[in-house]
Amino acid sequence: AKSAGKARFSFFTDDMLKDYQRRVDIANAIEYALEHNEFSVHYQAKVTPDGVPVGAEALVRWRSEQLGFVSPAEFIPIAEQSGKITEITQWVINRVCLDVRDAIPRVKRAIPVSINLSASDLKKYHLVGFIKGAFIKYGIPPGLVEFEVTEHSYLDNLDMANRFFAEISAMGCEVALDDFGTGYSSLSYLTKIPIDVIKIDKQFVDNIGASERDDALVLTIVEMGRRLGMELCAEGVETAEQLKFLSDNGCRIIQGYLFSKPLPLPEFLEYLQQVEQK
Ligand code: C2E
Ligand code: CA
Ligand code: CA
Ligand code: CA
């Protein structure tokens, strides 16, 4: 057994050690970040094909005292594994409610903000109560908050997710299925879950124009969503060509750098005021 342990250890390369150390550092720094309020939230517009804002996505940002800027793509999975994600989610929910409350008097027409939920959030049924509590505490109409959950997270916890989102929908919040089409799954679940919006993943948007088959795939997703009575939102739209293809084919919500990057609240409000004037 001893030699087996040794042999196994020899497969543990320097890179793996560094990677492991980085993960440990991030996990520890998350703990610190929650205590010292190091997170913030940026907002990215969702618009109609002519650029009218119809929503925004809240995206968490983290500048760590010890590690500098860390991308959510890196720290969110670590927060999930270390059991800290729901604390971050709760922090984001509070932040978004505060921001929505402050923004309402400053915009002509309030638009809903969507919050990303992780797989482990769906197992915390108390989170539903936390969300209700936050709406009441900050006086937020539930219709101004939406939730995004990846197809993968949803299917990993199908029964729990259904229970969770049945309550969320009953409160009046829309739910979007994020990163749609990136997992491998049967589509039959789509008729059984309370989903309002399908988000077409950036990888499909990136491939628009690459081949007839790539285009056919996007068309099929849009058509399927339409027939199921769901709204379609395309993410990661960067070019006029992608925009034209999507809007010509019935995708009515567009999100991407072509219109706006994720922005801190003051700049996001400026952006809204600018487009309101057009
Ligand atoms: P996501 O939910 O799929 O969010 C879309 C990501 O694409 C965001 O990256 C956004 O900044 C980026 N993006 C939007 N438009 C474009 C574009 O036109 N071009 C390119 N290249 N990128 C674009 P971000 O903010 O780095 O977030 C990465 C991921 O981290 C998110 O992917 C989401 O899975 C996760 N995440 C971010 N904030 C939160 C959060 O508050 N809670 C949870 N659970 N996850 C979050
Ligand atoms: Ca998202
Ligand atoms: Ca997404
Ligand atoms: Ca994505």
Automatic annotation (TrEMBL):
Keywords, alphabetical: Membrane, Transmembrane, Transmembrane helix
Organism of this sequence: Thalassolituus marinus
All copies of domain EAL, residue ranges: 23-276
Protein name, UniProt field: EAL domain-containing protein
Span covered, complete protein: 401 to 678 of 683
